[in-house]
Amino acid sequence: MATAAPPNYDDHIRPIFENSCTNCHNPDKQKGDLDLTSYSAAMRGGSGGKFAEPGEGGDSKMYGVITHTLKPIMPPKGDKLEKKQADLIREWIDGGLLENKSGKPQKKKKPAFALSAAPSAGKPDKISLPRHLLLEPVVTTTRASAVADMATSPWAPVLAITGQRQVLLYHTDTLELIGVLPFDDGQPESLSFHPSGKYLLAGGGIGGKSGTTVTWDIETGNAVLHAGKDFDSVIAASLRPDLGGVSLGGPGKRVKLWDTASDEQVTSIKKHTDWVTQLAYSPDGVLLASGGRGGGVYIWEADTGNEFHNLRGHQAGISDLAWRSDSNLLASASEDGSILVWEMNNGNQVKKIPAHGGGVLSLDWNQNGHLVSSGRDKKVKIWKPDFNLLKELPAFSNMITEVAFSHDGKRVFAADWNGAITVWDVATAKQVGTVSANPPTIATRIQWLQTKLKNCPEQLAAAEKLAAAATAQQMAARTALTKVETDHRNAIARSNQLVAERTRLDAQLKALYADGDTLGKQRQQLQQALTHARDVLNTHNAAMAALRKEHQQAENEARKMAADEKQLVANEEKARQAAAAKPGDATLRQLADQAKADLDAHRQQLKDKQNLSEQKSTALARLTDQQKGPGNQLAAADNAWKDINSRWAAHHANRKALQDTRNALNKPITEAQQLSKSLEPKIKPAREALANAVAAQKKATADLDQLKKHQGNLLSGLKHWQAAAINTEAIRLAREAAVLTARQNESMDAFTALAAGIQQLKDPAQLAEQSRALQKLRKTIDLAAADLLGKSRDATARKAAYQKALEP
User: Fold this and answer.
1) Could you give the CA distance from residue 730 to residue 802 in angstroms, rounded to a whole number?
2) What is the pLDDT of residues 489-524, one digit of tens each?
3) Does the predicted TM-score (pTM) go above 0.85?
4) Is-contact 504 662, C-beta < 8 A?
């Protein structure tokens, strides 16, 4: 709200308070220990501290509670203050909290961020990362210059690099540019992060003319603090962890301690004999370390600047200082080639590391206790927490002037003399990327991305064609391999099956041969039995034949003797008759007796012969009866022989058939084995062909995916940088609006002063002249207000466009 004069407490603010606030906030009640009935009481604030600081305006607690954007809302009951009244209070705060129209505005006594105690050694609850910062380089040159300093956030993946009139912020994981912080006071020379990682301090300036420090809020990119003043460029600077002080040094050989609340120098320490090259507050904020080109290292009390330790040991200039995260140890690097480690209890030297021949140029200490150093020997070395060498990165072609660990200690950033910055993986000691100390403009990036994107469709079509061909080739190779492997397996299976069948037949043949041996033995036994039975029968038949012959002979003899008996009977009858005829004839009687005796003897012999014949007949009958046994035996043996012969013939036929079947397997087995052998050499080439086809298909697919990813990255990058271009314009418009606001305020102050002066004029000519000047100034204010309104609207529109551009 514009007023004829800047609003003050007596004339403008107290009436508002009396109408809406002092019912609760008066000397008797003082709700929240806040009394608003007088200026002095209001300035003391309440139990929650001061309700506003000069210049805070819309960001103040007072404005927040009366507009109901902060709690507790005021007034707690009823409607909030009218907008006109709230705007008047905001304008009063922005104008310096004037007491009355003749009073002087208060100066801001504190930086734009709240002072806080030194952070603990642990990780903060909130990790600070840049968000929506300016990405347009302040300066772009044909080539990068040497990097003066690098620093990494202790907790976030943020790398800060000095550039041309700017500080560049990179993401240590993605290596993307995430912020450009303009350094309007010359060239930045020194960088250091606050232990919380929320703030970044840069010291620098114009050589031989001026120097100062700037502190940025990493999240917003706002310069929250300008502190320190020197008559040469600040080449060493550090922000005290409690945010209450800044130390700076340079060619003036002095260590200057600057109070950030009053923006005044507290002390100037003249102890170094040459340039002050390094300054570093301990992470706990108790001590300040300084190093100079003369080789001296001093430890000071951070608050008072009183000397704490004088560390003697280096023989040349100090090139870097680094505190261990627990603040107990300090490492100092020197041009004498050594790194010295000091403990802070007594200031004793703990370790001397002969690090780099020709001089150490830079070092950094990570949260895990590892050190990294670089030197004039073009080497970068990483040291264990016990200060023994862990590893050395591959040799560099130029001197590495600056080194820094990433927040997690997994990467090392190395900047060489020519301004090239390489990124290294600590575990593998391999380079994983680069970052630029001289990034291109957003327009250049957009043009480059658009050019690349024009070629993407053609490249993708070609890659898709190659991928399709590779897939087809892979399928053909797989089909060929499947066929040869299937044929090979089938041939082996066929061979194994036939061999198994032949083995089975061999086993059967072996069993048949065993059965044949058994049958042969049985056949031999039966043949012997048959021969024996035949011999027995022949012997029996022979005996029967002999007995039949004897019987025939006895019968023949008996028949002959029977025939002879008739003769003898006739002879005896004749002799008896002759003797009867001649009884007295003794001769005839004797002849008759002899004839009778011969007849009797003959009859006795005949009887014997007949008995013998009967005996022979009986014996023959008996043998004839006995002939059945050998005959039966011979018949049984003959039947058994015929049976065994039949079985032998069947066995022989079966064995021959089985042998023929077995022999018939030899040819297909040989063919299957030959086929298997002929296919075997084809398998390896087929597998290699498939492997090659698979590799080619994978590569073609990977290339296609890579191209798609590349196109996606290009599109994402284009969108990102197009959004960055919009954001750059929005930031520029916002800054121009801020400048216009400041000018408008100055014009309003001049208008108020001029109006007040007119009231004192008596001369009509002077009064007319001043009135014309007042009208002209009023017109200027109105034009500036219109311009401001337009800039603010444009800035808001561009900010909205930027947010929309970020949408997926």
Assistant:
1) 8
2) 999 999 999 999 999 999 999 999 999 899 889 889
3) no
4) no
